[in-house]
Amino acid sequence: MKRHTNMTDTKHSLESLTPRQIVAELDKYIVGQDAAKRAVAVALRNRYRRSQLPEAMREDVIPKNILMIGPTGVGKTEIARRLANLAGAPMLKVEATKFTEVGYVGRDVDSMIRDLTEIGVSMVEKEKLEAVQERATELTTERLLDLLVERPEPRPRRTRKGAESPFAAMFGQSGEAEEEDDTTSESYQTQVQQAERLRARMKEKLLGGELESAEVEVEIEESRGGSARVFGPGGMEEMGFDMQSALGNLFPKERKKRKSKISEARRLLQAEEAQRLLDRDAITQEAVERVQEAGILFVDELDKVAGREGSHGPEVSREGVQRDILPIVEGSSVMTKYGHVKTNHILFIAAGAFHVSKPSDLIPELQGRFPIRVELESLTEDDFRRILVEPRNALLKQYAALLEADGVTLKFEDSGIDEIARLARQVNEQTENIGARRLHTVVEKLLDDVSFAAPDIEAKHIVIDAAYVRDRLADLVKDEDLSRYIL
After folding, report:
1. Disulfide engineering: 433 pairs with which of 53, 338, 339, 428, CB 3.0-4.6 Å?
2. What element of type H or E holds 237?
3. CATH number of 14-129+287-375
4. Can you give the pTM of this predicted structure?
5. How many angstroms separate the CA atoms of 279 and 285, rounded?
6. Class of domain 381-486
C-alpha cells in the first residue's frame, strides 16, 4: 500500500495521535463536551487513515464535516482552535454573518479560503525561519565582522600598451593588455594575515558579547511591500498584491544605511539573512498543500443565515449566503495570489446556537454537507467550578500569575471557588446565558480593587473565600437590573 506523507510536517504526527489521545489533550483545556471532542477526534484521525490509502481511493475520501449546536460560551470555538494547534494545521474562524451573496455589498465567501491560505503561508514561513536560524546566525556574524574589520583591497589592475593586432581590430578589441593583480606580493599577503588575525580576535569578542554597545553602520533592505485591490466575481477584495514580488528584479530593491549598536544591528541583519535563505516557491507550494490537505475552517453563527425563502427586509440574502457557501464546502477551486486552492479536503466545522432557527432551516444541500451533528450541553455550576481550576490555563491561575508580578499572592479557598461558580450560574439564569464567558466578568469584578491597588497595598497575601466573594458581588447579583450592566 502506498503511503502518503504530505501531511506529516505538523506539530504532532497524526500517526501517533489516536482518538483517545486527542480527547485527552483536549481535556487539558476544555471541560466537558465529550460528544464534540469525540467527533473532532475521529475527524482528525480520519485524516491519518486517509493518508494511508492508495492514491486513487484517497482522492474520493472526503472529510465528514461537523455541525456543533449549542449556546454561546460552551467551548465550540475552543475545541476547534485546540484541535488545530494539536495537529499543527492552518485554522481560520469566520462568522457567517460577515458574508453576503454575490451582488450585495460585503465580503464574498471565497475570501475565507484566501485568508486561510495566508495563515498557511505564515505558518510554513515561521517554521522555515526557525529551521534556518543557525545558518543565519553564522552569516550575520560574518557581516558584522565585515563592518568591524576591513578586508585588504587588492592592488588595481595596470595596463600596458601592446601592438595592434588585425584580429583585435576586427573584433573591436584594443591593443591594451591587462596585467594580473599583484595579490601574490609579500606585502599584500602580510596585510591579509594581519586582517585575519584581527578578525579572529574580533570574532571572539563578538561571540563573547563584549561589543554589544559598539556602533556600526549597517545597510539593510528597505521594506516597500504594498498591496493592490483587484476585482473578483464577488466584488473588490484585498489580495495583498505585492508589486515587488510580482515583478521580480525588474526594479532594484532600495537599501538604506543606518547607525545602530551591534545588538540592534545583529537583530536586523539576522532577520535579513534568514529571509534570504528561504525558498519562497517551496514555502508557497507546501503551504497550499497543507491548506488543501489539513486546513480547518470554523464557520460560526451559521444559525444566523439559516433563514429560508419568504423572508423580508434585511434577511433577503440569507439563503443566498448559504448557496454561495455550498460550493466551497462541496469542494471547489478558489483563486488566491498563491495560485488555485482546492477545498475538497478542508475540514469544515460549523457552529451556531440555533435558538430561533433549526438545522433543518438550512437549505437541504448544505445540511447534507454536515453529516455529523453534535449538541453541546449548557454549563452547570459544577462545570463552572471545574473551568476555574482544572484546565492548564485556568482563569484563576491566570489572575494569580498576573498579580504575582506585583508581589501579591492570591489564595483561592474551595469555598470561594464554589461561590464564584454559584454566582456566575445565577447571573446566567437571570440575564443572558453567555456560558463560561460569564466567569470572566465575575472574576474581573471580584478582583477589581486588588488589581488596581496591587502595587501599593501592604498586605501581599490575599485569601479569597466565600465571605470575600459575597462581600463584593452578592449585592450586584441580587439587583438584576444592575447585574445586566455590570456582570
Report:
1. 428
2. strand 235-238
3. 3.40.50.300
4. 0.75
5. 10
6. mainly alpha
